[in-house]
Design goal:
It is a single chain. The strands form 2 sheets. A 4-stranded mixed beta sheet has the order 3-2-1-4, with helices on one face. Strands 5-6 form a two-stranded parallel ribbon. The chain contains 5 helices and 6 strands. Helices cover about 30% and strands about 15% of the residues. It has about 180 residues and is of the alpha/beta class. Pfam families: DNA_binding_1, Methyltransf_1N. It is found in: Cytoplasm. It catalyses: a 6-O-methyl-2'-deoxyguanosine in DNA + L-cysteinyl-[protein] = S-methyl-L-cysteinyl-[protein] + a 2'-deoxyguanosine in DNA; a 4-O-methyl-thymidine in DNA + L-cysteinyl-[protein] = a thymidine in DNA + S-methyl-L-cysteinyl-[protein]. One of its GO terms (molecular function) is methylated-DNA-[protein]-cysteine S-methyltransferase activity.
């Protein structure tokens, strides 16, 4: 998975729980939520940092994520180094183009890639996106507007979509 790359990782707090930010010398390789469906084995995460501030790339990413959660950032400018197949890389590049506050369906992404029959493959690649939030796979929803699976859990996806104004705020209940 890491193909001999030296990785480091640090943990930051966020409104959706801890985020583990993983980086190589070339950029961010992963952002994983505490209950991530496809976490890396701890043996391939590399050196665990005492603080995200101990690595300049991880610190930059953590700072931009903090700004995003504070509502002062709508896009990210961090070097990325995600590892995946050529098709996954193409899907992830499309995800990165979905602007803050907008969504796409799996079918729309498949059409953007040139073949509506790729919908299922797009869904699989979307689910394997290793760089949550920065590469906004949470902005992909079902064609009918439904909340489909999210590697960080549907609660995290709904939070992120509410944060971006895509979903209305949850209604307070008395019971």
């Amino acid at each position: 998975m890491t193909s001999g790359r030296v990785l480091r990782h640090g943990l930051m707090d966020s409104p959706i729980g801890g985020l583990r930010i993983v980086a190589s010398r070339h950029g961010i390789t992963g952002i994983y939520m505490e209950n991530h469906a496809h976490p890396l084995d701890s043996g391939v995460l590399g050196e665990r940092l005492a603080s995200v501030a101990d690595d300049p790339g991880i610190a930059l990413c953590a700072g931009q994520l903090a700004e995003y959660f504070a509502g002062t950032r709508t896009s990210f400018e961090v070097p990325l180094d995600a590892q995946g197949t050529e098709f996954q890389q193409r899907v992830w590049a499309r995800l990165a183009r979905i602007p803050f506050g907008a969504t796409r369906s799996y079918g729309q992404l498949a059409l953007e890639l040139g073949d509506e029959k790729l919908t299922r493959a797009v869904g699989t690649a979307n689910g394997r996106n290793p760089i949550a939030i920065v590469v906004p796979c949470h902005r992909v929803i079902g064609a009918d507007g439904s909340m489909t699976g999210y590697a960080g859990g549907l609660g995290a996806k709904e939070f992120l979509l509410r944060h971006e104004g895509i979903l209305p705020e949850a209604e307070a209940t008395l019971f």
